[in-house]
Amino acid sequence: MRKYISIAFIFGIAMAFSLTACSEAEADVNIYGSINYKLSNDENSSGNSYMKAENNSSFIGIDAEEVIGEGITGFAKLELGVDADDSNNNPLDSRLAFVGLNFGPVGSLSAGRQSSPFTDNVSGHTDVFAVYGSSADQNLFTRDSNTIAYTNNIGKLTFNGLVKIDGSTGKDGIDVSEGTITYDAGVITASGGMSSDEVNDITYYGAGFTADATSIGMPVTIGYTYTLKDAATDVNGNEIVASYTTGKAKLTGGYGKVEDSTAYYTTGLSYGVTDSLTTYVEYQHADNTGSTIDTDSYSTGLKFTF
């Protein structure tokens, strides 16, 4: 019963936003999402392989925006993960939920459950596979609650800042602080930033770039990320990916290495069946150190985006 109530709830919210958009011309509402399902065959730490058909990060979301006054816009986002397998008897899980104000050239301010600027803008240069990859990146979180974020664009530069204040960790004030700067020159996009876990006294630093030659008629894209976890024992990670696009097909290869630890070799082929439907096949080899055995993982899937 709880499953059907949850589904009815999200579609009820979507309908409410849509009706609001129809009755008030100023409001702009967009419903989006992705249904992604895969069949994988992965080896565990003992070298035993297992095959499984399962959900692969499906989600549904709502973007809303409305002009408040000259140069000021209100906005909100609600994004829920969809567990297509209902494996926990709870098919919907909060991914993002925030509200904010955009003051134009002054920047925008938002609060709620939001994504990490460090993970998005630094690690994002090499997080390009549907299933594997991005295994050597050092970062604190992907999405988190109790956050306040600020964003501003100045020419080709974008500044993103975020703080977390949860009031429950035993530390008064800011628990996490992040900041990134991104330079977008068209063919090349470069980012750098830091993420600080104030509670546990751990800081992450990183930089990366994407060289997208498809914008000048060449079918090649290259991405690189370097991240460092500054803790009692420092750990750094390097990731590099390269893609070749021909028609509706894209072939991607990647390499990631955690300092004094695992090296990852990843490859994938995706094909756009339609503008919305994509099929993919991926493989990853984990070259482990010491007595830990190496592992191989394979996946294939379908993704429909709307």
Helix content: under 10%
Number of helices: 2
- Which value, in Å, is the CA radius of gyration? 21 Å
The CATH class turns out to be: Mainly Beta
The end-to-end span amounts to 27 Å
Structural class: mainly beta
Q: Could you name the CATH topology?
A: Porin
Spatial order of the strands forming the largest sheet: 1-3-4-5-6-7-8-9-10-11-12-13-14-15-16-17
Global shape: globular
How many domains? The number is 1
Largest sheet: 16 strands, antiparallel, barrel
Estimate the strand proportion.
over 45%
Number of DSSP strands? Answer: 17
**H/E topology pattern:** HEEEEEEHEEEEEEEEEEE
Proper CATH architecture: Beta Barrel
Residue ranges: pLDDT <50 for 5 or more in a row? Answer: 1-11, 13-25
CATH fourth-tier homologous superfamily: Porin
Mean pLDDT: 91
Notes on the protein architecture:
With 306 residues, the protein is mainly beta. It has a single domain, classed as Porin, CATH 2.40.160.10. The protein contains 2 helices and 17 strands. A 16-stranded antiparallel β-barrel has the order 1-3-4-5-6-7-8-9-10-11-12-13-14-15-16-17.
